[in-house]
Design a protein that fits this description.
By secondary structure, the protein is mainly alpha-helical. It is 54% helix and 7% strand. It is globular and about 40 Å long.
């Protein structure tokens, strides 16, 4: 079965799609999270990989260690201690942007 524009999805699927959790990238596009905050989250993680979850001003928090763990390229690059600091920072920021925060 293929879904075209006129195909109706069952109510439970439609409802769950409408309540999708926004990612950090989505929050950034809506200006709820700033680039400076993403950079600060990455810097905190790079300073201490065991740092507590980062709190954005919007009330969202993100466990940067968990987002890095879930991002295969970031995890691999950060495991290589010889990788350049700028590349390490970029990969952590990418993992944060692609991550999903929680809201208090």
């Amino acid at each position: 079965m293929t879904f075209g524009a006129s195909t109706r999805l069952p109510g439970t699927i439609r409802q769950s799609m409408a309540k999708e959790i926004p990612g950090v990238g989505d929050l950034r596009r809506k200006s709820e999270v700033s680039d400076d905050e993403i950079e600060a989250a990455a810097a905190a993680y790079l300073k201490d990989e065991g740092a507590k979850p980062f709190a954005f001003k919007s009330g969202h928090t993100i466990d940067v260690a968990k987002t890095v763990e879930m991002h295969p390229q970031a995890k691999k690059l950060l495991a290589d201690k010889t990788s350049a600091p700028g590349l390490r920072r970029t990969m952590v920021m990418t993992a944060v942007i692609m991550g999903f925060p929680v809201q208090k």
